[in-house]
TrEMBL record:
Gene Ontology terms for molecular function: methyltransferase activity
Pfam families documented for this protein: Methyltransf_23
Annotated Gene3D superfamilies: Vaccinia Virus protein VP39
GO annotation, biological process: methylation
Name of this protein: Methyltransferase domain-containing protein
Keywords (A to Z) from UniProt: Methyltransferase, Transferase
Amino acid sequence: MTKCEICNSSAISVIQSLPGYQEGSFYDIKYCKNCNTSFADPLAVDENIYNKIYSNAHIVPGYDRYYRFANDVLKVRNPFLFLSEIEDTYWSIYHFVKEHNKQVNPKILEVGCGLGYLTYSLNKDGYNALGLDISEKAVAEAKKKYGDYYVCADVHDFARQNHGQFDIVILTEVIEHIPNPKNFVSSLKSLLSSSGKLLITTPSKDAEPDASQYWNTELPPVHLWWFSKNSFKELASSLNMNCDFIDFTPFVSRQTNYPKLSDPWRTQTLNRNGQVLFTVDHSDIKHSLKRGLIDAGLMTYFKRVIKILRKDTSSIPATKITAILTIDNGQP
Ligand SMILES: [Zn+2]
């Protein structure tokens, strides 16, 4: 590969060679200076790894919380609000749907809905949301758990049959897993109505000043890309789309725990036989306490009190990007 797939620049260098997510695999990490994007080489998905991760989701670090959220949304009174309080990504979607989007009863599609809890939560809050996933197993399980809000299809096939059908298309924590993001986003664009909005969330490089030197996101081939805001500006412009971003300030100003930005070394998670190397315990009491506070509507006050007690007035850099892409209709 000689050119950046996002911005077409040739200003690419190899910055690291890394062992992959599973023991025995190795990747080069390449960096595009022009659009501040890092990516893995080879850019290829390993479906076996996802089977291993999802069959052990409750104990795989990073995925265990998705497993918990999937059960938690059934236990709380307002699941969409619950998700928005617990994680920045869902806060940005909630904030957008409630405050940015002025359209009445928008048709919403969640692409790569996985366990299905966000689509379910949107429906519980009165929205007309459909979840799409390529995994038959994921869709069957989501339908069984939450109801008939899901469809199993390849996104490109689905886009050909549902041209211009959706007012909001949501892609949370998916784009960094995809070998060819431009092609993928191009299909998502064709699903949008003329005033439709595409929301894409992903881990952000922008929070780390030295992120041009190393890879500090899930090891490849699980994450294949690590994006900056510039990556999305370039991606949008190459697809004739406009690009804006959600401002995370209201969310991060309440946070009391600094994310770990100092350790750029990620550990391998699966051994050569595909077994999980470091497991986590999901019966964690801190999490149940958090859920109780959020469900009682007390989380915001709790965090405020903690910050006052610590005399903490600082703000934490956002560790996620939520890009809002819209079709450029050629009007000034
Ligand atoms: Zn580039």
